[in-house]
Fold this sequence. Notes:
421 residues, alpha/beta, conserved putative lor/sdh protein from methanococcus maripaludis s2 fold, Rossmann fold, 3 domains, seven-stranded mixed beta sheet, 22 strands, elongated
Amino acid sequence: MARSIVQISGHIIDSLILPKVLDLIINLGAEFQILDIHVGHRRADRSSARIQIDAPTQELLEKILAKVKEHGALPLETEAEAVRFEPAPADGIFPDHFYATTNFPTLIRLDEQWIEVEHPEMDCAIRVDPQSRRAETIAMHRVKKGDLIVVDHTGVKIVPMERRVPREPFEFMSSAVSTEQPKGLLIREIAESMIRVRAERGRILVVAGPGLVHTGASRHLIELIENEFVQVLFAGNGLAVHDIESALFGTSLGVYLDKNIRASEGHEHHLRAINAIRKAGGIHQAVEQGMVQRGIFYSCVKKGVEFVLAGSIRDDGPLPDVITDTLKAQDMMREKARGVSFALMMATTLHAIATGNLLPATVKTVCVDINPAVVTKLSDRGTFQAIGLVTDVEPFLRELSQYLRQGGNAIDAEYTRSIPG
């Protein structure tokens, strides 16, 4: 029988961290005994517990310890152990037994002090610079030979996400696919959270698919952009092409959106739109030259919204602005996602999952799609903070725009009140 004692502290009851840890131990085939527990008397008080884990084998115990660590449960005997690291053997290759990161805030113990790991991101490694006493996550393709990479789990601590006290409205929503909860209530809470983020001068990221144009929802996204509720936009070639097709020809996939009838030779419109933008040199140039005078990307250019268009194998053209190198697109998205406080993902599966992989768990994330499997895939990939709303994107954006329109004036008022003096 293998045994270890772990300690966990924080808002472990209110945030359901303690029952999650106990469930993990049982589900993985071990037994637990709560040696002692201290429960806070007030909402703001922290609680703590020591839990003894008994597993049939040392191998299973190590597996359990790695899993419960994701919820902040750390073995007492390793609390003071220093982190271990090894040099990368070659460019693009991690050392054997490298520590695979989560998207939770993470600390490493270096020279008897806990150091925060910069830019939390899942499915990466941790690169350490002992001289500057800095640590950061690094993707596999970016590692260089000789980089010092953390190995094993020793000296690594994960800080689990806890509910804030007092809670924000957003935090009353469960991390699940919502099909039956009142959508109006959830949309209002999403709007309130976005207003709060902007009042604090936070950045909002929107990830969108071409369905926004096909369903006639682009006008609502344009309103969000014009009212400065979007600072960064991630999409693919499709959204940009159909948005520009709509701006140039009034159609999307050859169909007039206002008349809902197919245009003569309309199937060529998206290719002619691509050709026109390629001739202009890019989206910014087309806007500056007066060729494109409306639409999502017209507003992005005019309002200074940064956008990243990541290509795929099925793209027509593509537009000059599309990054066709997958790793370059990933790095650009990674760079632009830093500093984001809120992410809104709509009508896109691949871009939503790709973006979710890059975001820290501290970023509030909302995924809206008519397909409930999209947000399920997000959660399966580890984006635990994602809230899913199953609905068509047009009515969602229409209602969200109304709430933001009503509450948008609160931004300046709240910001003014936050200024000392």
